[in-house]
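Record type: ASSEMBLY
Status: queued
Input:
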Amino acid sequence: MTDVQNKPQTTAADHGVAHMKWWGWGVEGVAFHHEDKPGFAPFVKKIVGVELTQGQHDTGLDFSQLTVPASRASTEVVDSLVQIVGPEHVDQGDHDRVVHTYGKSIRDLIRIRAGILERVPDLVVYPADEAEVQQIVDLAVASDVVLIPFGGGSNIVGSLEPMPTEERTVVSLDMGRLSKVLDIDEDGGLARIQAGGQGPDLEEQLNARGWTLGHFPDSFTHSTMGGWVATRSSGMQSDKYGDIADITKGLRVVRPGGVLAIRAVPSASTGPSLREMIIGSEGRLGVITEVTAQVHRLPEKREILAYLFPSWHDGLAAMQAIAESDARPSVTRVSDAHETAFSFATSKASTGISKVVNDALPKVLKAKGWDVDVMCLSFIGYEGSPEHVAQTQKAVAKIVKANKGMGVGKGPGKLYDQKKFDTPYLRDFFMDHGGAADVSETAAPWSKLRAVSSRVYAAANQAFDQIGVQGWIMGHLSHSYHSGACLYFTFAFEHGEQAEAEYDVVKHAIQQAFIDTGATVSHHHGVGLEHQPWLAQDVSAEGVAVMQGLFDSADPGRVFNPGKVTGA
Amino acid sequence: MTDVQNKPQTTAADHGVAHMKWWGWGVEGVAFHHEDKPGFAPFVKKIVGVELTQGQHDTGLDFSQLTVPASRASTEVVDSLVQIVGPEHVDQGDHDRVVHTYGKSIRDLIRIRAGILERVPDLVVYPADEAEVQQIVDLAVASDVVLIPFGGGSNIVGSLEPMPTEERTVVSLDMGRLSKVLDIDEDGGLARIQAGGQGPDLEEQLNARGWTLGHFPDSFTHSTMGGWVATRSSGMQSDKYGDIADITKGLRVVRPGGVLAIRAVPSASTGPSLREMIIGSEGRLGVITEVTAQVHRLPEKREILAYLFPSWHDGLAAMQAIAESDARPSVTRVSDAHETAFSFATSKASTGISKVVNDALPKVLKAKGWDVDVMCLSFIGYEGSPEHVAQTQKAVAKIVKANKGMGVGKGPGKLYDQKKFDTPYLRDFFMDHGGAADVSETAAPWSKLRAVSSRVYAAANQAFDQIGVQGWIMGHLSHSYHSGACLYFTFAFEHGEQAEAEYDVVKHAIQQAFIDTGATVSHHHGVGLEHQPWLAQDVSAEGVAVMQGLFDSADPGRVFNPGKVTGA
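Status: finished
Output:
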C-alpha cells in the first residue's frame, strides 16, 4: 500500500472540502497492495477461493461510464442557496452529486460500481458557518426541500442516500467547511469543535495544544465530529475515553427558526436527555453544527501490548476479568481464531506480527502444546502516567496468566496502532477481484458473547451455503464495558451476478443472529436504512413508535433526512 | 436521634407498602434531637437566630386537623381498578391520599403543615405486577384518567402533586408492591430490579448475593429504583458507580397497549436513545416497571478518609486534580467553610469530627497558621481490592499535599458514612422551631465552579436581605467528573408568615445564579414543577419544544403526569 496520508486530499478543490473516491474508500492514489505480504494471496485463495494475483485495476473506475440523473432543483431554490453561501459553494455537478449519494458500505460500493444511481441529491451546498446553516434550514422548511447532512461520507448503514421515491428537491448539506476547534476550556478539558471537522484535522488542532479527543473509530481518517455524534460512533480507545455519547457534553443543533443549544455540563437532571436524542439522530432532528467534547491531555505514556490466548474462550474470559477488575486499560481487543489467522496472513514479512509467528509461536507450540488453529491474538492498550501504565500492565498480566494467556511484547501492537485505519482499502482491492466483504458489529452482556459468536458463525455459514459460495467469517471483541462488550465481525465471499442480493442474505443472517441471542442490532454504526429491519426487535415496537413520534413532532414537514432510522 | 432503621416501617399496613410520615421525612417515631451535640443549638442561634431549645413538638402533627377534599373518582373507575388489583389495593382513604399528594421539598412541607391541599389524588392504586400496571394504564387511557406514578415519595421538585386545575380523576399509582430483585446475571453484573423497590430493601437483596448497586443518594432510605430513573438521580459514590443514567442498562416501561422494552446491552447505536428519554421523564412517557441495572461485586475493601484544606479554593483545586488524574476514588467531596463549620457544630462530643476539632485542629492552626474560619473539610472514598485502595490513597495523598491539604484519618469518614442519610430529619426538627431549610444543586465545568459558588452566596444573601431575615447558606462539591462537578447548597432561615413566598425568593435567586454562571438547573433532582422556570434557559427554547413534542406525541391524551418537566 502506498502510505496512507493523514490528511485527505481534496478531490473537489473549488469549494475546499476533501472527499473520498466516488467509487471506494479513501483518497485517490492510495490503494492496498499485497506484494510485500507473501502469505496473503494464498490465504485468501484458501478461505474464499478468490484469486488475487489476477485482474487487478489499481486506478479506479471510469466516471464517464456513469449515467447520472439530472438535478431536479428549481432555479428558485438554487438561487436562494447561492444567495446564502455564494456561487462557489453550491455544486450541481455530477461528480459532487455522486460523491454525496452514498456512504461506503459494501451495498453502496456494489451499487456505485454497477452504476446504480436511483436518486442522487439534486445539489450539494457548503455552508461556511452556523448562520448559513440556519438560513439553509429555514429555506428548506419554507420551500419543502429535503436536507441530508453530510460529514465525511464514511457511513455504512445507508444514512446518506436520498429515499428512492423522494420527489422533492434533495440537498446534500456538506459540513466540510465547519472544521475548526473553536476553543478549549483547559480546566475541564472541554473543546468546542465544529461538526464538519475530520478526524486527522481535529486531532492535529487539538494535539498542537497538548490535547486529544481520544476518539479513533476505524473510519477516523474520513469521518467527522458531527457524523460521529449523529451515528453514535465509538473509537478503539473507548475503554478509556468512552463512546461518542460519553465524549459529547454540549451540542448546538440548527432547527427551523433557531438553535437547540445544550450546555456543556458534566451531568444534568433536566428531563429526558436532549443530548441523547440528538446523538444517533442521523440528521432527523436538525443539523449538528457544534459539539463541546470532552478532551484529554495527551498521555505521558502510551503502549499497546500483544498477547496470545490458547482459545477464544480463554481470550473472552480474560477480557471479562479485566473489565470486572480495578485495572483500566485504554484498549481491550481479542481476535477469534479466524481473525488471528487472517492477521498473521496479512502481515509483512518484516513486521511485528510476523515476529510473533516466527519467534513466539514455535516456542508456544513446543512449551504449551497449543493448537495453532484455535489460538487467539489480543491487543491491550495502556495510557496515562508511567506509574499508572506500569500498574495497569501488571494487573493485566496477572489476569492474562490466570486465563492461560501469554504476553508477546510491543512489536505487533505498535504495528496495529500504525495500520489500524488501512483496512477499508483492502475491501476495494478485494472487490477488484470479484470479492465482497463487509462488517457487522454488535454488543451484548458478557454472559451472551459466546452464544452470539457461535450463532453468527452458524448463521453466516448457512447463508454462504444458501447462496452457494465459499465464505469466510471472522471476528473480534473490542470496546469492553463492565457489563459486556462489542463483537465485531468481518465476512467475505466471492460474489456472483447478484452481488447485492447475496450480500443481503449474509448480512440478514448475521444481524438476525445478533437479535436472537439478545445482542443489539448495532454497537456503533447506527441504523440508517440497512439496520431498520431489526430495530423493533431490538428496542421494541413501542420504542420505535416513541422514536417515530419524536421525529414527527420535531419535523412535521419531513425535511430532515426522512426515512432514516425508523423508516417513516 | 433515635437510631434510623434501615427498613422503613409500614404506615399503611393493609396494602403492605411503607410510607413516610404524611407531614415530614422518614418513619414515625424517628426524629432528630440535639441533646448530645452541645455545639449545635448555639451554632444555629448564631447563624439564623432560631432558638432550638424551645417549642419542640416531637410527636408529629395532628392529621385530624386537615380538611381533605373528597375523592372525585367515579364508581366506574374505582370498580374497574378494584377488578384489576383487588379491593385491598385501591385506597380512597384520606390518609393515603394525603401521603400521595406531595413529595418532601420544603415547599411541600410548608404546605402540608399549613393544611394546604389544593388537589389531592382521588385514589391510590397498588398493582402487584407489570400485567396489572398494563391494565391500569390501558384503563386510564380509555377512561381519560390521569396517572401519577409514585415510588418512595421523596421527590423535592414537585413531580408528584396533581396539577391544581386538573378536573379529571387523578390516580396515584403506587409502585411499592413491585420491590423484588428478579434476577442477577452474574457475568455482566446485570440485575433485573422492579421499579418500586426502596434503597435499603434492594441493597439487602443484592448484598445477600454478594452484590451492590452502589447507588446511594441522600434519599436512599425512602426512594425507589423507578424514582431514581424517572428523576435522573445520582448517589454519593457516583465517581465509581456512575449516575443512575450510567447504571441503567435495560428498561421496561408500560405504555398504552404494550411495554416499551429496552435490552440491557452495554452500549448501542440504535438511533436517539430511548433509554435516555425514559430516564428523567418523571412519569410522562409511561410507567417504569423494571430496570436492568449495573451491579457490582461488594468491594473487598471500602474506606472514606477525611482531609482538611486551608480554603475552598484549595479544596476545589485538589478535587479537580484528582478528576484529571489516573486515580479513581469512589467519593470526592469537599465542604466549603460554612458547611465545614456546620459539620463541626453538629458533631457529637464523642465522634470522629469532634476528634478532628479537638486533636487535629489545634495542631493545624499552630503548625500551618490556617484560618479556622475558611478551612474546608473533605471526604474521599476508596473501594476495590486492597491494592487498588492503597494505590488510590497514595495518588490522592500526593494531590492533597500539592494543594496544601492534610489527611485527618478514618474517624470522621466512618461517621459520615453511617449518618449520611439522617440529614432530612434535621429539617423537620428545624421547621418545628420556625425555620425553613432546603437544598439546591447544580453541575458545571471546573472552570466555572468558583464563580457559581460566589454568585450563589451573593444571590442568597441578597434574597435574605430582601425578605428581611438572617439567613445561612453553605455548600459542598460532590460527584466529580473529568469535566466538572456537582455543587450542592443548603440554605436556611427563620421564616415569617409567608414561608412559601419567602422560600421562593431565596430558591429563585439561587437557581438563577446557576443559570447565569453557565451551570445547569439541576444535577440530580429533576425538573418537576419547581425547576421549570429555568428549563428553557438551560436547554434552550428549542430544546424544550423538542421535549414537549416528545411528550405530546407519546401521550396525546395527557394521561401521564401532565404538566411536569415542561409545564405543558
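Annotation: Chain A touches chain B through 94 residues (CB under 8 Å).
Annotation: The radius of gyration of chain A is 23 Å.
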